[in-house]
# Entry
Amino acid sequence: MAQREEIGTGLLGPEARLDLLDGARLPTGRHGLPREVIVENQRARLMGAMVEVVSTHGFPIAVVERIASRAGVSRRTFYEQFSGREEAFHRTYDAEAGRLFDDAVRAAAGARDLAEAVGKGLGAVLGGLARDPAVAKLLIVEVLIVGPEALERRDAHMQRFAVLLEDAAITFLGAPLPRLTAEGLVGAIYDVIYKRVLAGETEDLEELRDDLLAFCLMQLRPSTDPGVG
Amino acid sequence: MRRAGQVAEPDIAAYQRVLDRVFARSRPLLRDAPTWQAALFASVRGCYAEMRSNPEALEMHFVTTGRDERVQRTRTAHRDRVLALLGDVRDDVPEPIQAEMALTMIHSTMCAHVAADEAPPALDDAEQTFATLLFNAVPDGD
# Structure
């Protein structure tokens, strides 16, 4: 399983995240570590704790005390990093959703046709969520109950995926998609994923890839390539 | 527009009652259509007609659902029971994921229309969307 270890942005992957939270801590007292290293480590721990606490207990119960405790830092340290739990959630959401988007872009780079581009992008998203059910719960389900700003961020990230689809259509089909097609597809895929995450079937998400790809291609191709699909 | 976490329990209950009416009328629509695509067309048309006559339910179904976890959960459960009913009353159903994707795509596209336009689409326009998504892009069942 691929691990991510970009501690500065809080992106760790499930095992490394738990290692960070439950493993050896930075030395205390006079250790000579630069201040920025300590701050980055604390931030990564807090964002990792946000993922763990929200996915286990739900956002309403993810109070600052609980998040700080899970991160192994004080409430004061929490408030040195974030203005409150909403901001901590937003930062964590942006980091994880951004990581998923970047993974999709990287996976689709160099694709030779629409099927390969969409298939690899879908595979990266489904695989990323399947490998980290805690992050999937935060991104797909819990974001709905945090508040308006979280929803705006969710909408913005979904729009980025829609633009990605639109760009792929222009690149490989040579024409823009009909209005709202990409938004509709991204929303539909979100709905299908939501149901599985809610049902505790996150780890099976990758099994949907081929069916979702086939459906996407049928929706993407007819208007610009009537003879296909 | 409602904000996250602001939907009151009575509003959820009222929305559920509308969905229950939609579901109660779905059986003959799903059963008597010539194909499974036509069955879903009749079902979503009936659903949208019901929603248009209940503006509060329409907003819940196409706007609030993306902003409130309980509404999303309620709508997802309704979609699942419609899909289960489709499988119960027809012999020509496709792979479950195909019918599910067809319904989610229709719903998601309608959400985008409702969000982008000043008023919810007229029934005629909505029918065109349903037909395009169901008959132009979904493969025949086995």
Notes: The mean pLDDT of chain A is 88. Chain A touches chain B at residues 141-142, 144-148, 150-151, 155, 180-181, 183-192, 194-195, 198, 208, 211-212, 214-215, 218-219, 222, 229 (CB under 8 Å). The radius of gyration of chain A is 19 Å.
